Amino acid sequence: MQIDAGMGSFERQCNRIRGFPVQRLVHLGHYSQPCESRQLNYENIFLQKLGSDDMMTNVMFARQKILTFLKKQNVATAAEIGAALQMTAANARHHLAQLQADGLVEVVSVRGGGKRGRPQKVYRLGKAVLGENFAEVLDTLLSMMPPEEAEARLESVGRALAKKLETRTTPLMRRLAQAVGRLNRMSYQARWEATPVGPRVVLGNCPYAALIQKHPALCCMDAALLHELLGEPVKQTAKLERTELGNIYCAFHLKN
Fold it and tell me: Which fold has domain 63-130?
């Protein structure tokens, strides 16, 4: 990438500090302007970036304080959080709304209402923060069954999870799109790709990755799920393999 020879020391500092992009400076600098005017433009851009970075830091710090408070108190309203953390209830509600959208907090109940004021939502930490013991429970259940029984039951679970969307008369591309949508609502990070041997569904996330080695029959559940969603049999062609970038994935091809 070439940088204009007339770029001043302050401009070069902008490009070194905090990852400020050269392209943005070149675009906003307007080299047709006099040198003094261009220097002022760079200073303004740099100061605006510093200000926006500081603001984002403050926002993230405030939300982290809310999460820490909820971890200690278990549940609280926006007014209680605001009073404890020295922010307004309106600011607390704004942060809570964003944290709720990210799955980090959730509403567990509503207090008050009636004649003396509007109801107040009661918040607690979300499952994404608290975690869950799903993997341990599933591991225990599967360990109690013979391998053949576990595989049969998991295939039944896969078919039940599918809740079949459409009949087989629906075009295949539409079925693939609907299947990917359903899988992504179940945290599979799925997509489908066209290949020389037919479509394949790629799962960028395996919700059961920690258990697959011990209970490989879980892959049968995914195959049954896809079979039911697509109305076509599938064959697993990749199992927890890595891309060139190191990302783990599984893949299923539609059988010809």
Answer: Arc Repressor Mutant, subunit A (1.10.10)
CA distances from 256 to 174, 193, 196, 218, 233 (A): 18, 15, 12, 23, 9
Neighbours of 238 (CB within 10 A): 16
The number of helices, as runs of H, and strands, as runs of E, in the chain is: 11, 7
pLDDT at 244 exceeding the cut of 60:
yes
Nearest to 69 by CA among 137, 5, 129: 129
Q: What is the dihedral of CA 26, 27, 33, 35, to 10 degrees?
A: -30
Selection from 211, 185, 186, 206 nearest residue 251 by Cα? 206
Tell whether the model's pLDDT for residue 78 goes beyond 90: yes
C-alpha 189/C-alpha 250 separation (Å) is 11
Residue 18 DSSP class: G
Is the whole model's pTM more than 0.90, yes or no? no
Q: Which amino acid appears at position 66 of this protein?
A: I
* DSSP, res 207: T
Q: Could you give the CA distance from residue 193 to residue 35 in angstroms, rounded to a whole number?
A: 52
What residue ranges do the domains of the chain occupy? 9-53, 63-130, 134-254
The strand pairing partners of 252, in sequence order, are 201, 236
Spatial separation of the C-alpha atoms in residues 199 and 173, rounded to whole Å: 9
Topology of the domain comprising 134-254: Muramoyl-pentapeptide Carboxypeptidase; domain 2 (3.30.1380)
Return all residues near 25 (Cβ < 8 A) that are at least 6 apart. Answer: 11, 14, 15, 42, 45
pLDDT single digits (tens) 25-50: 344 444 444 455 545 565 565 555 55
